[in-house]
Amino acid sequence: MALTLFIGNYNYSSWSLRPWLILRKMEMPFETEMVDLDVPGFKDRLFEISPAGTVPVLDVNGERIPDSLAIAEFCAKMVPNLWPKDEAARAEARRVTHLMHEGFDALRREAPMNLKRRTEGKMPKDCLKDAEAIVMMWDDLLSRHDGPFLFNDWSIADAFYAPVATRFESYGLPRSRRSDTYISELMADEHFQEWEALAFAETHTLPETDAVNA
């Protein structure tokens, strides 16, 4: 099976990070093709990759799957243990993954993923409200499972919240001790650190993203 994952920039593309982590956890070989964002002609390139004009996109033997959640579900069909084994836990993991996929708009807007960023500036109230809701959810799940991840072993849910964890670090968002430990676990993961190293090696920047809450 020939797999190619089209992604955006390592430093900024949170949606690209999610399926990349999942594919690395599958231990299946795949190629990565990165598209620099916000450069002349980048939109044309994206529309060449997918009718939606977005990344990530997974090419599977010439067939292309857009959207991080669709890619995750494709991967889970090949490797079922990417979701929790217990049926109730699996349903809850899917629920919180969909919640991240569709919600927390203020956090996404006011604290975009920016792995090189470190700031302690005052954040908008709606962003802090989203962050508080995420911490409460993390704390609840972590208190009900043995951890160190949301559903004991690493799962797709953790892949979807990994880019959120980076935002807590980048923007100095408040978190509980339990959630802080969880964030540390996600960021200490060998595959995340591989991605982070690629992000820090990048020279391409997105000035508008860098200027958010600067």
SSE layout:
Blueprint: E1 3-7, H1 14-26, E2 31-34, H2 42-49, E3 57-60, E4 63-66, H3 68-78, H4 87-102, H5 105-110, H6 125-144, H7 156-170, H8 177-188, H9 190-201, H10 207-210
Parallel strand pairs: 1-2
Antiparallel strand pairs: 1-3, 3-4
Architecture overview:
It is a single chain. By secondary structure, the chain is of the alpha+beta class. The chain folds into 2 domains: 3-80, Glutaredoxin; 82-195, Glutathione S-transferase Yfyf (Class Pi), Chain A, domain 2. It is 55% helix and 8% strand. It contains 10 helices and 4 strands, in the order βαβαββαααααααα. The protein has a 4-stranded mixed β-sheet with strand order 2-1-3-4, covered by helices on one side. Helix 1 (14-26) runs parallel beside helix 3 and helix 4 crosses helix 7 (156-170). It is globular, with a radius of gyration of 17 Å.
Number of DSSP E strands: 4
Q: How many separate domains make up the residues?
A: 2
- Side-by-side strand order of the widest sheet: 2-1-3-4
Give helix and strand order, one letter per element, not per position. EHEHEEHHHHHHHH
Oligomeric status of the shown chains?
single chain
The overall average pLDDT, rounded, is: 95
Radius of gyration: 17 Å
CATH topology of the largest domain: Glutathione S-transferase Yfyf (Class Pi), Chain A, domain 2
User: Which term fits the overall shape?
Assistant: globular
Poorly predicted regions are: none
Largest sheet: 4 strands, mixed
Regarding CATH, which class of the largest domain?
Mainly Alpha
Main structural class: alpha+beta
